Amino acid sequence: xxxxxxxxxxxxxxxxxxxxxxxxxxxxxxxxxxxxxxxxxxxxxxxxxxxxxxxxxxxxxxxxxxxxxxxxxxxxxxxxxxxxxxxxxxxxxxxxxxxxxxxxxxxxxxxxxxxxxxxxxxxxxxxxxxxxxxxxxxxxxxxxxxxxxxxxxxxxxxxxxxxxxxxxxxxxxxxxxxxxxxxxxxxxxxxxxxxxxxxxxxxxxxxxxxxxxxxxxxxxxxxxxxxxxxxxxxxxxxxxxxxxxxxxxxxxxxxxxxxxxxxxxxxxxxxxxxxxxxxxxxxxxxxxxxxxxxxxxxxxxxxxxxxxxxxxxxxxxxxxxxxxxxxxxxxxxxxxxxxxxxxxxxxxxxxxxxxxxxxxxxxxxxxxxxxxxxxxxxx
Length: 379
Ligand code: ADP
Ligand code: 3PG
Ligand code: MG
What we know:
The protein is an alpha/beta fold. It has helices at residues 37-51, 71-80, 92-99, 123-130, 149-153, 164-174, 192-205, 213-222, 238-242, 281-290, 312-323, 333-341, 356-364, 368-374; strands at residues 17-22, 28-29, 32-33, 55-59, 84-86, 106-109, 135-139, 160-162, 183-187, 208-211, 247-248, 252-256, 262-266, 275-279, 296-300, 327-331, 350-352.
């Protein structure tokens, strides 16, 4: 493994302008932070820099809607450590605020994804952001699988270091690069375009793969099951995955019927008017039992629409993981939010702030964001 140069070892930061790329993509409910885990994990980097006398400029994204604002995140953060919010990324107001910053102060700029430039890794955009600072710190391990401007573009222009949370994620997840066997992998959630290609890789890494959530719906659909109004996509190669001997799909599911009431159905009995909202109780109990013989467990993605209260399937699996003697890693903004709402986050070997990035790192041994720091030529 490459060693990551950590900002915690850098001296003489007094008066330096430090641009921190943070992972603040937290779940919001009615415009409020519903789980602050990712925010809490990045606070040590910010307070370390403030105490060292740096001027801390934090950048981050929230969700995928260009209209999304980090304002509720700033409000929450400010309760943990003083930080100003600037509702813009560029402009004379931002320039003045940065020019007037005092040593040991911090500001958070607005959502990086307000335009397409972040995701397109636009060079001008990256250079403009880099011009705000003397040093770049990446503390967003959860977004390190994205070759976006704030992850791989900015370090072309600035000396780059890993933040405290980033280095901690890297150290802990590196231990899982060589998994113990039997290795059980539980995958749920909804990020098809990220997770489906990784699923193909995990077929060669894991001994058993349990797929629920909207991803499970996609595989059930590929197998020819009626999935009604469920969230599912047509993905190339999904049929082969669905039929792979190591991949396990739910055999009962909780559905919401046309009249909005819920019922459990066997997967062969789903109606065109149904919407799958969780894995079924039989499936959850069986999978949780199977986990007891695993030596390594990795979980990412909820099994159901947990925001609307359908968290029983995930809950049963989380309890199964906690009970099993296996080394356990769970990750993902939504997965961790749910585990924390059930007060279970202390019962796993490691709780990662990363979802897709965690899976990608374990499947590929590195990430664009890791390479950008390791291979940084400005340092
Ligand atoms: P994580 O943040 O843990 O990596 P994802 O972002 O991939 O997870 O997925 C979380 C989302 O998946 C949640 O919004 C949840 O409601 C959704 N989800 C899970 N199961 C279903 C389902 N059966 N139908 C629709 N959405 C689902
Ligand atoms: C995550 O929540 O997994 C990261 O913040 C990346 O978000 P994205 O999948 O929208 O790029
Ligand atoms: Mg998520």
